[in-house]
Write a sequence for this structure.
C-alpha cells in the first residue's frame, strides 16, 4: 500500500490521536451523486496541441493533455446521464465591471476573451448541455461563492459530488458546506484535473456537516 504524502510529517503522538479518535476512517459514499464539470471552456482547454505550441494563443489553456481529459469527461458525463445522475457545469467568466471581480488583478493581459458572452468564455461546443443541466457562471475561483450552487445541492438532496474539469477545479471546494439533512457529509471526488502537469491529480476530501 502506498504511503500517503503527508504521513512522514505526523508524529507518533499524532498517530495515537488519529487512531484512538477514530479519524481517517472510510465513511463510504452517499446515495445521491451529482457530476459537476468545472470550466470546460476554450479559454481553459485551449487547442488540441502540445501546450507550448498553443500557449501564445491560449495562455490559460491546457493543450493536448486537457483535450485528452475532456474526452474522458465526455464519456463519464454520458455514463452519468444514462444512470440518471444530474450534471451541472460552471463557467469562469469576467463581467464588464471587472474592477470588482476576481479578474481585476489580471489586467496586464488582454481579457477580452474572458468577458461573459464571448465565444471563448462559453462552454466547449462538444459539451452540449441538455436543457435540464444547469450551467452556473462564476467570477471567482469558487463554484460556490456568489452562485446558487449550494442551495441547488441542498434542494436536490445531493450528498456526493463528482468533480471533473479544468485547472480551476480546486475552486469548487468551499470552506464549509452544510450537507442535506440526514447526510453525514459531502464527498467531493475529483476524477480529472486538466492541468498541464505530466501527472494527473486525484484526490478526495470530506466536508463534514
Amino acid at each position: 500500500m502506498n504511503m500517503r504524502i503527508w504521513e512522514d510529517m505526523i508524529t507518533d503522538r499524532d498517530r495515537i490521536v488519529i487512531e484512538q479518535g477514530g479519524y481517517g476512517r472510510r465513511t463510504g459514499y452517499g446515495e445521491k451523486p451529482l457530476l459537476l464539470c468545472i470550466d470546460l471552456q476554450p479559454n481553459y482547454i485551449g487547442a488540441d496541441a502540445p501546450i507550448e505550441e498553443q500557449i501564445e494563443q491560449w495562455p490559460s489553456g491546457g493543450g493536448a493533455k486537457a483535450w485528452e481529459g475532456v474526452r474522458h469527461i465526455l464519456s463519464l458525463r454520458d455514463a452519468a446521464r444514462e444512470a440518471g445522475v444530474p450534471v451541472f457545469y460552471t463557467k469562469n467568466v469576467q463581467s464588464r465591471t471587472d474592477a470588482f471581480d476576481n479578474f481585476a488583478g489580471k489586467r496586464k493581459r488582454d481579457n477580452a476573451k474572458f468577458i461573459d458572452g464571448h465565444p471563448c468564455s462559453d462552454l466547449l461546443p462538444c459539451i452540449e448541455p441538455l436543457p435540464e443541466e444547469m450551467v452556473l457562471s462564476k467570477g471567482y475561483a469558487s463554484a460556490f461563492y456568489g452562485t446558487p450552487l449550494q442551495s441547488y445541492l441542498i434542494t436536490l438532496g445531493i450528498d456526493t459530488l463528482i468533480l471533473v474539469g479544468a485547472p480551476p477545479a480546486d475552486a469548487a471546494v468551499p470552506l464549509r458546506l452544510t450537507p442535506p439533512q440526514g447526510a453525514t457529509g459531502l464527498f467531493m471526488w475529483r476524477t480529472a484535473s486538466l492541468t498541464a502537469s505530466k501527472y494527473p491529480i486525484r484526490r478526495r476530501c470530506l466536508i463534514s456537516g
User: Anything to note?
Assistant: The longest strand covers residues 185-193. The two ends are 30 Å apart (CA to CA).
